[in-house]
Amino acid sequence: MKNVLALPLLLALAGAADTAKRNVLVVISDDLRPELPCYGCDDVVAPHLSRLAGQSLRFTRAYVQEALCAPSRNSFLSGRRPDATRAWQFVDHFREAGPDWTTLPGAFKRAGFQAVGCGKVFHPHLPPNWDMPRSWDDRMNATWADWMYPSEPRCANRSTWCLGDDDGDYEDAKTTATALALLENVTAEDETPFFLAVGYRKPHLQWRVPKRVAALYPGGPDNVSLPAVDVAPEGAPGLAFHMPFAELSAFEDVAECGGPGLMAPTAAYPESCQRSFRYGYRLAVSYVDEQLGVLLDWLDDHGLDEDTAVVFFGDHGWHLGDQGEWEKFTNYENAARTPLLIKAPWLPASFGKTVSAPVELVDVYPTLCGLLGVDVSYVAAESAPLAGRDLSGLLRGGAADDGHVALSTFPRCVGGENYNKNHARNATYADWFLNDCNDVPRDLFTHMGYSTRDERWRFTAWYAWDGAALRATGAPVALELYDHAGDDGACGGDRSAFDYETANLAGDPVFADEVAALLAVLVAKFDIPHG
Predict the structure, then answer these.
(1) Range 258-265 average pLDDT
(2) Please, what's the largest Cα pairwise distance for the chain?
(3) pLDDT tens digits for 362-397?
(4) Residues 6 or more apart whose Cβ sits within 8 Å of residue 446
(5) DSSP code of 503?
(6) Which pLDDT score is estimated for 19?
(7) What is the mean pLDDT of residues 143-168?
(8) How far apart are the first and last CA of the chain?
(9) Is the pLDDT of residue 129 over 60?
(10) Cα 515 to the center of its chain, rounded Å
(11) DSSP-derived secondary structure letter, 302
(12) Positive or negative, the Cα torsion across 167, 170, 174, 175?
């Protein structure tokens, strides 16, 4: 009888021990839109992401809080939205707003995990972005210096993409090698679980990949599809757009295609150029997929695949000519939406399942803590609470909140000499020219766009910006409403998920009730003083 009574206790202790040994691998890809085979987009080759998706819960509507690298990373790694981090561009860092905040890796470090990372995790600009020693157990063994001072050769003639030697020097390959070395180190003593964050720079420009990757795309650029709609949504305000295409415009093949300075959102690059750019992007996605496969193989080969949660996502999406836009820098679906895969190998019932309800990258922090049993109740005493929701119940079979609304934001800086010089070139889309805030102090922003996404609608309101108070002010100066009825987040069928935002319905009286209701939600969610 004593042995029988002891059995449940022994099993419980064994379960607790198993939980203590569970690890976390977070993989972040830069500029990655969910145009992947695991999202029904068969034109892209990414077998390792498909393999991971088959063992994961896949989120078809996962949204970032701002479609720009630094503010997005400041947000999901701190677990707070940009309105809390006060970091909407490259100038500011969340530590200014929250010196006491515990980050995602910091929470696992505090819970006794070995917290290590490599590659582009926090955005590498200011020294605080290393976030040492609050978040990490060891110096970030990142290839960050190689990104800032690249040893990777550049493409000839400053092209957007090119093919290099198969055994050449590639930043993301260095990141993978560093990750494997870290894994060897943190698993040398198997009593302590690890939290490893790996940040890949691609498919961020420049798209230089090994020659072998091109074999995945027979026919080259000529076989790459074009966007179904390559001009601006009808009735969209100029503030919605980004110009110039600051990243693309640095490359000579873009200039040969007409260059962004010659464009308006009612025009498009020549088809041959669009195919070329889209081809280069796909090459880079497939290369990241290859690197992910190396990490997954290592876990398999070392018997850690059953004990390691794996999370994969992008820091934001990317426009590939859809709606006349390229790059990120907008509140549109194609910039705000990213893939999100969460694998909890001890919850196999979640494998291959999908969640269509809107979720956000600020949810990743509390979700991982929930999956691994990491207590973050102490965060409530910090100067701002975590903004996301714990979605770990979904991996355990719980129901999704279909009524949740995802939130994103993006600033605009309209004015200055360059703006005035270009203003007369296209009066209809004047706000579209040179409205970049990436390196502008936040008190000098002129506008802020706030966007909500529910299961059907994307709704965006643009406000004038009060630089002294650092918040929106007055009534909206422009509204946008886009209908996503029928959008399943996939590329197949009669209409791709990337082709829905083609007409702004906000000014149509037929949708006046929807606009009023969605504006009320937006004002409440973002705490905007509505004038």
Answers:
(1) 56
(2) 90
(3) 999 999 999 999 999 999 899 999 999 999 999 999
(4) 412, 413, 414, 415, 464, 465
(5) B
(6) 53
(7) 69
(8) 73
(9) no
(10) 27
(11) T
(12) negative
The type of residue at 155 is C
12: confidence class by pLDDT, cuts 50, 70, 90 = very low
The angle that helices 171-186 and 271-301 make with each other, rounded to 10 degrees, is 20
At 418 the pLDDT is 42
Two structure tokens written together for 465 = 């910006």
Q: For all residues of the chain together, what is the average pLDDT?
A: 86
Write the pLDDT tens digit of every residue in 508-518: 999 999 999 99
The pair of structure tokens assigned to 67 is 């479609």
pLDDT at 435: 81
The superfamily (CATH) of domain 23-526 is Alkaline Phosphatase, subunit A (3.40.720.10)
pLDDT at 417: 45
Nearest to 192 by CA among 311, 23, 309: 23
Q: 476, 497, 475: which is closest to 485 by C-alpha?
A: 497
What's the average model confidence in pLDDT over 309-324? Answer: 95
Q: Length of the chain in residues, anyone?
A: 531
Q: How far apart are CA 166 and CA 43, in angstroms?
A: 23
* Catalytic (active-site) positions: 69, 123
SS3 451: strand
Across-strand partners of 458?
453, 482
Report the C-alpha gap between 163 and 281 in whole angstroms.
12
pLDDT digits (tens, 9 = 90+) for 467-487: 999 999 999 999 999 999 999
User: At residue 452, what are phi and psi to the nearest 5 degrees?
Assistant: -120, 150
Distance (Å, rounded) from C-alpha 142 to C-alpha 156? Answer: 27
For 302-416, where are the alpha helices, taking DSSP H only? 333-336, 364-372, 392-395
pLDDT score recorded for residue 299 = 98
Please give the structure tokens belonging to residue 514.
């929807």
Our separate counts of H helices and E strands in the chain read 16, 16
Determine the Cα–Cα distance for residues 356 and 88; give it in Å rounded to an integer.
28
DSSP code per residue over 47-110: HHHHHHHTTSEEEEEEE-SSSSHHHHHHHHHHT--HHHH---SSS--HHHH-TT---HHHHHHH
Q: Are 356 and 489 in contact (CB under 8 A)?
A: yes
Q: CB within 8 A of 311, min separation 6: which ones?
A: 24, 25, 26, 27, 340, 341, 342, 343, 364, 368
